[in-house]
Amino acid sequence: MNKFRLTLYVTGHTPRSEKGIRNLQRICAEELQGKYEMTVIDVLEQPQLAEDQKILATPTLVKELPPPLRRVIGDLSDTEKVLLGLDIAAVGESNEGRGK
Amino acid sequence: MSGSAITAVEKLETGIPGFEHVSVGGLPKGRTCLLSGTAGSSKTVFAVQFLVEGIRRGEGGVFVTFEESPENIMSNMLSFGWNLEQFVGDGKLAFVDASPQPEQELVEAGSYDLGALLARIEYAVGKVQGQRVSVDSLGAVFSQFSDVATVRGELYRMAVALKKMAVTALLTAERTEEYGPLARFGVEEFVADNVIILRNVLDDEKRRRTLEILKFRGTDHAKGEFPFTVIPGEGVVIIPLSETKLEQKSSTLRVTSGNHTLDEMCGGGFFRDSIILVSGATGCGKTLLVTAFVSGAQQQDDRCLLFAFEESREQLFRNASGWGMDFETMEQEGRLKVVCVYPEVMGLEDHLIRMKKEIRAFKPTRVAVDSLSALERVSTGKSFREFVIGITSFIKHQEIVGLFSSTTPTLLGGASITEEHISTITDSILLLRYVEMFGEMRRGITVLKMRGSMHDKGIREYAIDGQGMHIGAQFHGIAGILSGQPMQISQPEIERMGSLFREELGE
Q: Is a pLDDT exceeding 80 seen at residue B439?
């Protein structure tokens, strides 16, 4: 299986940012078993990256690899939706729970 | 209260034509203003123009788009002559692209904020040293996220952040009705200090765009709706009705009407800075009077600009030569310019702007419009009234003489709507009327009004031949010409009436 390349965009060291990072670490540890590469970007420090990626909301998790490119926003407290958004679990192409 | 005499709010000149007048100096500086309007009310054009004018004044601009992609906006705005791509390249303009990315699916898992958006705006403002920010449009943010409460809170945070950055910001919002709630999603609640409304009302099958400043907290602005138009190569142009205050100097200088007898009736000619209305039924010689007025420029070494809305240039020139006036030579000598346009080709607002432009460029000493009533048919009553006020006040402000012709709907007597609008603004009114007498149609002319001058009060007969108009003697023994029901009065009756008044005067 290919490695997952995940980037998490957060705004500063807020409780929401911390929560997002913790949740991502937990999910990665539980579901991806070491097959991942994780980067955290603070948009206050690197706004140009947020501009390039057209990030609006924080936290935003971007799955760059493997394709397709996927985005999940929020503090990632809903594990099921994160997995669905990242296309990890065998949930398939169900549209339930996706953002409008 | 905003009515306080002490106002500390500074204004930022936007550079949008006419807006400074309506807003009494511009947008409140360093504040955010809500720009609300229905679909197609030119919100985006206004928001972009606000930035473009700033860039022309050396102020950096940031455009935050929630709706269209920057590429789309850049290509759309080229038709106004705004090369946004170049501004971006020069570091004067920055886009914050927050438009929906359809190729990316978005899943919401837990709570979020729009911190990245705020960081990007702040970053862009710093990058171009932005002093103006346009956000287009607030409502579109709501369609990108499912949590309405969060988005509202975050937009409020954005408004606060913009204020902190001390930029002057324009936030657009869409509304569903022209005269209904201010904006969708209740966004007006957090940008409530300053509100501008753009309207695009369909009235009698004609579109009418207006701009209204609903409120400017702590500072003054003009009240009510002001018409505007969107012109290729220019953008939004607002037409302030009262741009020219009634403060024109009045001149005692007279110019000829082109007809010697008519000059005498007016006490020596028209005043140099007056507006004259010529009213008459079809075929009674209005165009002849206009033609004579145009050729009057020949005698006094001045320049005439003729706006013809009914006849083509060839027709006008042929008519003129038929009456012994040589328009061609005048044109060659640069003392005449004829502008022929069909009234239907554009809206009245566009006509007004075009006419002003022509007058500014040619710098005539006299302007003739034949006819005003032709323009009436392409507009609503309200637009027409505004047009008449706009053009007459502009002409007066230039201190030149303007002659307008107007066709009455009925052959005998009668008034037209045109006159209703214009008669109080004009300085002089000439009436041309058909007079039915003894089984034939004769024509009468009278000077109904001549501000600031003595004039002939009689109704005089005139005839038209190859030499033009010949004004003869007063109609005697006829009453009721203007009402359209001429009646012959016998001589003894006139004497009896005359003596009646003498008795009253105590003679």
A: no
